[in-house]
Amino acid sequence: MKELYKYRNLPLSPTIVEELILLLFEGQVTTRETIISEIKKYHISKGGIDDNVDLVSQFKKASGSLKKKGLIENPQYRYFKTPNLKRCYQVHKKQIC
């Protein structure tokens, strides 16, 4: 069975934008405009609500939070860099990284 998008039927919020930045742009240097555009497309395609929120504002709040956590850099105006996150998985009660 296909897993449902956990933000289905919800509008974008800074918290959702944070998660999607890390999911969709891990290890990349990308413009703010591209991030916003791709997050909106992804969210809507998965069943999220497009309620015409100010995505620039949502992005600024999300990126500010990620900067404080050390999970995004702003190397140049309007460009953002996310680190390669070491992803770990739980398999038969063992952590595999």
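Second entry:
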Amino acid sequence: MSLMSKFAVIATFLIVILYLACSSREASMSEHETLWKRHRIEQIGLSIEIYQPWRLDTLINVDAGNIYQRIADTGGLVFVRFGKEETIESFVPTLNNLVMGTSVISDENLVYGGRDARRVKLISVRQSMGVYHQDPEKGLVHGESLEVLTIISVVSFSNRDIPILVGYRVPEASLSTYRPILERIINSVTISE
């Protein structure tokens, strides 16, 4: 085989590799883009990206609403809540109960979607406690649930004179896995008058 023929074979091989790489990248890009969809909430003039693999649930009344997606198998949520009671001051106390306590990690003022806003990050701790479950062979068995840490990040602002909360809550153990998706959702908000 002549030197020119070897060169032609190598060049053809490289062109095929380059073509396959580009085709694979285009397919990957289109798959990635189908994971996201913009969702508009007309009532409050807000638009947000949703992550399509997670089901979107909505509960909207005349003067309030709750739009959320469950975060995979974590028990966590990403949410948009709106209505006259949806403020940081009314939201944070709802996180505490007999077995859960919440502490502020950070509290900052910022501009969000062109609006003055406040972003609060919290950690919620569900204490370990004794639990009982029914075992088919042993009957009632005593056990202990482990302490669970949950990270909550919420942005509070108003549009059209309606208080709005946009945020997420996710078990601390799952945060590093889902943080890029959650932050993309939170940062995708656009607001109109």
